């Protein structure tokens, strides 16, 4: 039973007869104020953001706090959901009630409760994927009592702008999702792009973000990019039509399991020859996201232009020097050359299973 504090304000009886004579139509009343004690169950997280990496593990904290007069019942339900990037929906991740436990969808077999104590509802996620990035909600329900807390899972990684051979501003939102996925990446969130902007990312072409907005980061204001009198920042076009509007995309990728390398070969290669050369070496031709991850997260540096899986030619420079990106560390882009006639080296990737 929930104790309550009841305060009653009663009309004074001393003056009842006088009031009756002066105001015969007056109805005497009793006013009761009811104040409940605070909630007897709540949940809390000792940290609101957890940082991990693709392929790693993470524990999202959620601790149950209960009034001393209560004890956990066998019908207490713990439910974890993941919010979609536009925050309009929640996707089921894990539910537990007594001995009954269930994980859902792509989380099946990868999540469980830490259960270090009866009051611990923390969620452990194994073999983290790029799609696991985002906000998670822990909800605990015990009878009429309930509590929730939201925890963010962030990933170490790198944001990169991308457009395919078709050229700039050719991707609707769903094309953009596929384009990033094909390059071993996912569409970046606003928070990821903002962090990249703070890390000096400057890009004058607008691209899709995971919430359906279109934005671009400017650290060096100039006329073709919103005006030179504008302050640096992430420029936005707002939410756009996911089917009809076409832009580039900002992709995000994280650590990988495997080896990214430049293939030493006696001669330069056409695109098809490059694909075959990687296969002959027991690998696959590398993807754009793998090059960016190797460059940003591992400091990969190679001043040799090479084919990548999407038919582009690029090279990663971690240490700027004369003739090799002299002004900044960057992944240099040489375009989408003719696959049949242009000759370059090739970057390969061997996955680790």
From TrEMBL:
It is found in: Secreted, Extracellular space, Extracellular matrix. Keywords: Disulfide bond, Extracellular matrix, Glycoprotein, Hyaluronic acid, Immunoglobulin domain, Repeat, Secreted, Signal. Residues 1-17 form the signal peptide. Disulfide bonds join 204-225, 303-324. One of its GO terms (molecular function) is hyaluronic acid binding. The keyword Metal-binding does not apply. InterPro entries: C-type_lectin-like/link_sf, CTDL_fold, Hyaluronan_bind_Proteoglycan, Ig-like_dom, Ig-like_dom_sf, Ig-like_fold, Ig_sub, Ig_V-set. One of its GO terms (cellular component) is perineuronal net. Coiled coil: none annotated. Belongs to the HAPLN family. Stabilizes the aggregates of proteoglycan monomers with hyaluronic acid in the extracellular cartilage matrix. This is Hyaluronan and proteoglycan link protein 1. It comes from Champsocephalus gunnari (Mackerel icefish).
């Amino acid at each position: 039973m929930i104790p309550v504090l009841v305060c009653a304000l009663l009309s004074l009886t001393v003056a009842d007869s006088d009031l009756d004579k002066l105001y015969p139509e007056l109805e005497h009343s009793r006013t009761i104020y009811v104040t409940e004690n605070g909630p007897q169950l709540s949940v809390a997280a000792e940290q609101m953001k957890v940082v991990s990496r693709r392929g790693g593990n993470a524990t999202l904290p959620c601790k149950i706090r209960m009034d001393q007069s209560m004890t956990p019942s066998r019908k207490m339900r713990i439910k974890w959901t993941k919010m979609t990037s536009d925050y309009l929906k929640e996707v089921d991740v894990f539910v537990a009630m007594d001995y009954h436990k269930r994980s859902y969808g792509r989380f099946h077999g990868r999540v469980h409760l830490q259960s270090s104590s009866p009051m611990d509802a923390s969620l452990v996620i194994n073999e983290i994927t790029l799609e696991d990035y985002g906000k998670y909600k822990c909800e605990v329900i015990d009878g009429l009592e309930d509590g929730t807390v939201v925890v963010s899972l962030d990933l170490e990684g790198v944001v990169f702008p991308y457009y395919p051979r078709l050229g700039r501003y050719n991707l609707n939102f769903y094309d953009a999702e596929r384009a990033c996925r094909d390059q071993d990446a996912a569409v970046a969130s606003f928070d990821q792009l903002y962090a990249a902007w703070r890390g000096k990312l400057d890009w004058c072409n607008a691209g899709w973000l995971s919430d359906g907005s279109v934005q671009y980061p400017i650290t060096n204001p100039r006329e073709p990019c919103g005006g030179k009198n504008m302050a640096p920042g992430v420029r936005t076009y707002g939410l756009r039509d996911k089917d009809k509007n076409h832009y580039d995309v900002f992709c995000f990728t994280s650590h990988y399991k495997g080896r990214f390398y430049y293939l030493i070969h006696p001669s330069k290669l056409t695109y098809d020859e490059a694909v075959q050369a990687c296969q002959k070496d027991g690998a696959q031709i590398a993807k754009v996201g793998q090059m960016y991850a190797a460059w940003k997260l591992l400091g990969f540096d190679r001043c040799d232009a090479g084919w990548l899986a999407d038919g582009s030619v690029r090279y990663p420079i971690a240490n700027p020097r004369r003739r090799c990106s002299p002004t900044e560390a960057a992944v240099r882009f040489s375009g989408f050359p003719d696959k049949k006639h242009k000759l370059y080296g090739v970057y390969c990737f061997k996955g680790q299973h």
